[in-house]
Design brief:
two-stranded antiparallel ribbon; Glutaredoxin; single chain
Length: about 240
Amino acid sequence: MSRTSRKKNRSIMAARRGPSLNVILTGVVILVAVLVIGGVLVVNRSGDEGAASNEALVPAGAHTLSKVEGDRVTLVEFLDFQCPACASYYSGITKKLEQDYQGRITFVVRNFPLEVHPLAVPAARAAEAAAKQGKHAEMYHALYDNFEEWAVDGRTTSADTARATAKFEEYATAAGLDLERFRADVASDEVRATIDRDVADGTELGVNSTPTLFVNGEEFQPGGGSTADVDRELRAKIDAALAG
């Protein structure tokens, strides 16, 4: 048999045998590496889904209604000042909760004005403008305590910007704010940027309605059908976090 024929036969036999052992081992090593890396990524991803990062929830300069050193238990609420559900939560749950847990938890409020509420952004601007003079909590309370004065017309959502603006300035005056500075801050790009940041953070966290609350980074999803039920559930979750 000629040398050329022997080479040809060896080639045919090799093709019949399939890939060499070295090729197979190399493929196995690559496959194992892919599986290991993929497994790590899956584990890391599933770990990230449990709780939202503190940075996204509580950025520098976030407004607190209650503050405790170390932020051991942090409650964050994304709210819309013209949202009837938010007003209901305030009157039935969070106003009293703020008092009862004062100094025991960090309670943070963030803006998330919804497009369906025409005065939500002006109200958020009023709250942020008050914050520029150290009076965010006072404006927050005034907006919800006087919800019926500016947020609604009878049974419908109000779109009366002039009336709302006059009311916001009344609340600012009652809080002892410099009214001219308040007016300038309401219209400022800085205040608008703060609201936009809150909305962007909320959107990234999956917020799409208000109120949305997080306890230690985990979204609170009540199962109760009444305000009293939700209040009990939220307090139970906070108490469990305090005890943990």
